[in-house]
Amino acid sequence: MVIEPKVKGSILLTAHPEGCEALVKQQIQYVKNSKKYSGSKKALIIGSSSGYGLATRISLAFGGSKTETIGVAFESGPKGKRTGTAGWFNTLAFNEVAKNEGINYKNFMGDAFSYEMKDEVIKYIKEEFGQVDLVIYSLASGKRTDPVDGVTYTSALRSTTGGVTGPTVDLDTDSIYTQTMENASEEELKATVKVMGGEDWDMWIKALAEAGCLTEGAKTFAYSYIGPKLTSGIYKDGTIGAAKRHLEQTATNLNAYLKEKLNGEAYTAVNKALVTKASAYIPIFPLYACVLFKVMKAKGIHEGCIEQTHRLFADMIYGNEPVIDEDGRFRPDNWEMREDVQKECEEFWAQLTPENFKDLSDYEGFRKDFFQLGGFEVEGVDYSADIDLDELSKIDI
Length: 397
Ligand code: NAI
What we know:
Strand order of the largest sheet: 5-4-3-6-11-12
Structural class: alpha/beta
Radius of gyration: 20 Å
Order of helices and strands: EEHEHEHEHEEEEEHHEHEHHHHHH
Bound molecules: 1,4-dihydronicotinamide adenine dinucleotide
Largest sheet: 6 strands, parallel
């Protein structure tokens, strides 16, 4: 089958295995050519198949310590006419290189929010893998079934300050249009915190600690975002911002819990705005990313997932240049938040029109990043070639 990109709104419905493989290999090569660090021996990455979680796994495995990793993700392989998800193909590509280089790994595909998944991972750590010294929580999901009450919560990306209107991109027509983010109901706010807040991270860490799966001094990090004034209406002051504050409060609580139990540590790392499956879905956010990329590229400080994550680990977590704010959060978003960067973003933002947005923002770069989420528009890949999905579906993840 010849695989072509299919887009519905801000979601890519198909994925190209060879494109995904090429991009994973590029990330691995980037890490191999970059600064080395001595870090984790064994790590668990929850949300390991794309975006920041995948970049984390690559940095850890290939960045110096050959970290053995367990990855948990919610992805599916090819079935009938369905291509399989990009995260599935990314994981296959990671497996291949790790295996060739003798770096141990294990994957669990399924619902990280469930008790069953936690039990399975714990069993594997106890019986085969051994204790982990690092747990990364990098989940992004629209839904969560809380195993305690059995209710499925659906997050709603909404405002909490009365609604926000702003311009955003339309990838179908390569244009911009005005979008409104409605105000959230109490129910929607609560559901978003349930899905994207820290409750499940807390459950994972306590289950792992109580089962004896964490080493003395183990660390855990969850990824967060704050963002500048320009996006505060949709992010910081939106339902997702409330969820991130819950995540940050969870870090504080878990830090105290782990300190007492294992002399361990828990933090959030506030990452830079980037194009991922999760962020492309946030209203208005994509156009901010287009403007931000333009400004950061012009200043030579733009980073993708792998550059940002590798800097977080090599310089901050396992290096000696940590950037930590007064609330104890790691801040690899420090370049995005620079005053000069934000001043220029605001200037461009104020001038955006449907006619000039391609000049005043890096729309082309954003568009390419978006299609690359599914392994499309990657140089050197023959997109007219027939892909044998049946063969691919037989490979064990
Ligand atoms: P992503 O969509 O690329 O990755 C999400 C991961 O979660 C995937 O591995 C997916 O398989 C996994 N997942 C989703 N639901 C699951 C479930 N029920 N069970 C198991 N795995 C599941 O997203 P991205 O952007 O890498 O997000 C990761 C974290 O980074 C999120 O907390 C996000 O808020 C944060 N972040 C993202 C930024 C961005 O601009 N993309 C900026 C700063 C923080």
